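Milestone 3.1: sequence recovery, worked example.
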């Protein structure tokens, strides 16, 4: 395996990083010169980037056949849409290095958690906006072929409704009167037939990002005739990541056996979405 790391330069920032875990071809394993790829975008409310939703998740997908990447994007006081451009640049770099990094540029998925899910969904639904074209990005280059969202924020109004005080997500998106501000507030309203097939999962008892976020996005996908899978688990708090011992946090309460199947379910869904890829579930 080769470890790569790049600092990403965009018209707004030069602080995001892309880390890749690249499995190099071997004569002992023929037919794996161009693996599917996945870009993992951790959460953190745009105030930090969660380690629990980063490398452990990327390595889990690597073990099932993916070239795996992690985006560590800018956080407050850096505000939207800087993060959107960083995600776009990450996707551009992944596809631009398809041969060097032994991946299939037509089988690139993004997986976002919480605020990272907002970023992944934003890139998937806003890739063809004139603002993105003006920054030098073409939708075909930066939009994922498959979108995976874990307890993702897509509706800032639905999320803010459960917070008593200031919501950092609101602060990050509204910190300045920037481009795509209205669109970023309600991403479910930006879904079109061009939105990639989507896998969503959440828990019914999430008190930080209400399940309505996933339900609204799934409904929008249905209206746009975009293929999707939706899994709502009956219990579990926000930020579970893999929900097993690998990503158990410092408080020791991030173990939820009823939620751990989401990873296998996502892999089975990806097998259907990328039918000719060598993905194990």
């Amino acid at each position: 395996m080769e470890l790569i790391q790049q600092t990403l330069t965009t018209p707004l920032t030069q602080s995001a990083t892309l880390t890749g875990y690249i499995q190099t071809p071997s004569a002992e394993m023929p037919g794996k010169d161009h693996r599917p790829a996945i870009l993992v975008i951790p959460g953190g409310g745009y105030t930090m980037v969660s380690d629990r939703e980063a490398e452990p998740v990327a390595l889990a997908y690597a073990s099932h056949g993916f070239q795996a990447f992690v985006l560590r994007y800018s956080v407050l006081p850096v505000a939207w849409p800087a993060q959107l451009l960083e995600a776009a640049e990450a996707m551009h770099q992944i596809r631009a290095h398809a041969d060097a990094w032994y991946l299939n540029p037509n089988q690139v998925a993004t997986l976002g958690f919480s605020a990272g899910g907002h970023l992944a969904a934003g890139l998937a639904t806003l890739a063809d906006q004139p603002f993105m074209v003006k920054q030098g990005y073409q939708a075909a280059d930066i939009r994922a072929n498959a979108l995976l969202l874990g307890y993702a924020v897509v509706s800032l109004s639905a999320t803010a409704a459960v917070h008593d005080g200031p919501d950092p997500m609101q602060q990050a998106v509204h910190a300045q009167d920037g481009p795509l501000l209205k669109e970023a507030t309600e991403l479910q309203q930006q879904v079109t037939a061009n939105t990639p097939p989507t896998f969503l999962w959440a828990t019914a008892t999430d008190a930080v990002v209400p399940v309505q976020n996933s339900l609204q996005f799934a409904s929008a996908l249905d209206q746009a005739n975009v293929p999707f899978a939706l899994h709502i688990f009956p219990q579990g708090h926000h930020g579970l990541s893999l929900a097993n011992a690998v990503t158990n946090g410092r408080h020791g309460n991030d173990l939820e056996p009823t939620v751990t199947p989401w990873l296998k379910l996502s892999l089975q869904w990806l097998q259907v979405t990328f039918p000719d890829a060598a993905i194990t579930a």
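The mean pLDDT is 93. The chain has one domain: 2-273.
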